[in-house]
Design a protein that fits this description.
CBS_dom_sf, about 35% helix, CBS_dom, 3-stranded mixed sheet, alpha+beta, globular, CBS domain-containing protein, 5 strands, CBS domain, Diverse_CBS-Domain
Length: about 140
């Protein structure tokens, strides 16, 4: 196992992003179509937040019995903006941060994704799944 490997070797660099002008229906569509659980929210190239699929689940009526799920989601999603739902107090890392350091950050916090930022520009995202896949490759 490479002890000083940079996170750039395992991060996703083709990033799907949202803007604050996008709506939560678009966010859900992106989550489902791309089979992802975290989407950075940007203003230009600068990251201003991150939206997780769990964030959407928290505001939806998951137990809406005898209701059309799509209708319920549309009503709820129109009640909130991305800025109201996204996480704003971000912890980020640079592309040269070691995978070990990233693992420590994720292990000691209650989130599962870190934006990778170089010179104030979003260049990638690394998740706990990326770390698990990296560890699996080592065996």
């Amino acid at each position: 196992m490479k002890k000083r490997a940079p996170v750039s070797t395992i991060m996703t660099s083709e990033i799907i992003t949202l803007n604050t002008t996008d709506n939560l229906m678009k966010a859900e569509q992106l989550f489902r179509e791309n089979k992802i659980r975290h989407i950075p929210v940007v203003s230009g190239e600068k990251i201003i937040g991150i939206l997780s699929y769990t964030d959407l689940l928290r505001i939806s009526f998951a137990d809406s019995f005898n209701e059309d799920e799509n209708t319920v989601d549309a009503v709820v999603y129109n009640m909130f903006t991305i800025e109201q739902v996204m996480a704003k107090n971000l912890v980020s890392v640079s592309s040269t941060t070691t995978i070990k350091d990233v693992a420590h950050i994720l292990a000691n916090n209650e989130f599962h994704a870190l934006p990778v930022v170089d010179d104030w520009k979003l260049v990638g995202i690394v998740t706990t799944t990326d770390l698990i896949n990296y560890l699996l490759d080592q065996f």
